[in-house]
Amino acid sequence: MTKSQAVVKAKELVAKMTVEEKMSQLLYNSPAIERLGIKEYNWWNEGSHGVARAGTATVFPHAIAMASTFDPELVGTVADVISTEGRAKYNMHVKFGDYDIFKGLTFWAPNINIFRDPRWGRGQETFGEDPFLAAELGKEFVKGIQGSGEFLKATACSKHFAVHSGPENDRHGFDAKASMHDLYETYLPAFEKTVKEGGVMGVMGAYNRTNGEPCCAHSYLLKEVLRKNWNFDGYVVSDCGALGDIYKFHKFTETAAEAAAAAIKNTCDLNCGDTYAYLIDAYEQDLIDEDDITAAAERLFMIRYLLGEFEETRPYSDIGYSVLDCKEHKALNLETAKQSVVLLKNEGGFLPLDKNTGKRIAVVGPNAQSLTALEGNYNGYASEYVTVADGIRRIFANADISVERGSNYCVEEKNHWSGFMNMLSDGLAAASEADVTVLALGLDCSVEGEDTGFDDDYTACGDKKSLYLPKTQQKLAEAVCDVCDNVVVVLMCGSSIDLGEKVTGHAKAILHAWYPGALGGLAVAEILAGEANPCAKLPVTIYSANNTIPDFKDYDMRGRTYRYMSENPLYPFGFGLSYTTFAYSGAKLVSADADKITVSVDVENTGAVKGKEKVQVYAQYTDSRTYTPNCQLCAIKPVELEAGAKATVTLDIDRYWVKAVLEDGSRVDPDGKVALYIGGSQPDEYSLSLTGSNCEKIDM
Description:
Layout lengths: L2 H12 L4 H6 L4 E2 L10 E2 L20 H5 L4 H24 L35 H16 L10 E5 L13 E2 L3 H8 L1 H8 L5 E4 L3 E2 L2 E2 L4 H11 L5 E3 L4 H7 L7 H10 L13 H6 L5 H17 L20 H14 L1 E5 L13 E5 L7 H4 L12 H8 L4 E5 L19 H9 L3 E7 L16 E2 L2 E2 L6 H13 L3 E6 L8 H6 L2 E4 L7 H10 L31 H4 L17 E11 L3 E10 L5 E11 L10 E10 L4 E9 L5 E2 L5 E2 L5 E6 L5 H7 L4 E4 L1
Parallel strand pairs: 3-5, 4-6, 5-8, 10-11, 10-12, 12-15, 15-16
Antiparallel strand pairs: 1-2, 6-7, 9-16, 13-14, 17-18, 18-21, 19-20, 19-24, 22-23, 24-25
Helix pairs in contact: 1-12, 4-5, 4-13, 5-7, 9-10, 13-19, 15-19, 16-17
């Protein structure tokens, strides 16, 4: 079915409804209209890294982990599996008359907000701190979810529009003030690209205000930018409860009816929440007219027609329940996890370990056997989990392996009657007798996450107050370093963590595994044993706790992320080591026109083992009319090479990413010099010193 055909059918169906019936369909839990053959439908469904909150499904690495693959095609393949499993579930839900929440096909993902501050607890749900990376991965995720068939396989939803990234405890009433420069250079590009190039069918408004107006009733962002300038004709949904915030916390209106009217007038079609129950009051008070209601209902039913809900034979009905977390999907899950683990340190080539070793390995830390640290948040429930300890047992079958938690995530208390609040000596006992200690440290969604409502000395509603580990884990890690010479740190969290000088200096190797999915522990173990060669790159800056970071509530980008910070971080965006090395040479400008630049470079595997390199292109440019980034990622491409092999890699660069953004938000060709750098990292001296590699330069 074409979109135009769906529009016609939607108009015909909505024309048969009373105004009250139309209003009822603008709530996320839309009721049935039996006289018109319309079944109830719940629009609220999650699928950022697997079908979530609806029983068994493949639990892939979380979004921030997928971002570290620097591989849009892989992310698109993952999204395709997510929507396939979503269809399999939907087919059975319909068969058994189950129309409950999380049982539909309208997935509210991806989260393409910019991870601008390392303290933000929801950064784990995003594709990182860079607008290009978020845009490229977001586009492919959208395409994978929605498919390319006659009907949509499912729908994606770009969220949260716009300028949303903490703090969590203020999000319901906070005004994110962003200049037009930052709005168009940083906060809007991923949304623009998923709309214009990804064809996303849904956009979710944010909780906060942006420059004074609530995002779910924003006259400029929704009506001017999204609908008019970008020609978006899909549906807009509020974040859950956000329309209530308009009058309760933003105080933008006095009543619920006025809040509902403001949202519907500014083309928010669907309410996740209950404020649109007051549309009838708004209608009777002449705050809105029936045309406003009709337009929203027509857009929503266009989506339902495109999903094939009203077809005599539903599309994709041949997808069976057996695909859920099946063998093939598990294989993709494991491969994605292996490609998402970033090797930050490998002193003297300490890794990989001999998989046939008979030595003693201690696995110590609160994430040694944690399932929640595999899952992240917005997760499903896998049919099989492999923790770090499980994976090490499988891969190092001849080793003598001991496992201890050593500490809780955040809380330590002596003389606690449960006996699980002070485990330090047990962790040290295991480490002191081990030849190698794998420290499985980090966080989980109970510590960092979405609006947890929990406030202590480490977290505020899911946001971190410190860039160090929680004190109880820092104490464990430093003590383990005192009793064991050979320490490997496996960090599992969704953000930037500084392990401290003692641990960072002592550890022979450091892996950042993020929230790596149901099979993440096996992926880690395979990397430790050299059965997999790490190839991931950091999608965020790993800040030193001593770095200067602007106030959390300040949305000005200057001083933030690799694009505008002036200090050396602990580990830079785009950095990641391998068990082999790569060299770049022969960079060439292949072609250039008004829309696209094509470059090529020779990449050689100069090491002793097969490896995959994530080739990166950064633009550096200056403009006398505005401030510009230190550099801007503008192209990525994976290449896999056998030891000693060499290949020519060609990359296309959208001119969009090589333009300066002026104070009015317009993109223009820079009036200063432009250079492109091609390599395995950023072109700055610090990144190059960490990788021991080079970047090739092309002057434009």
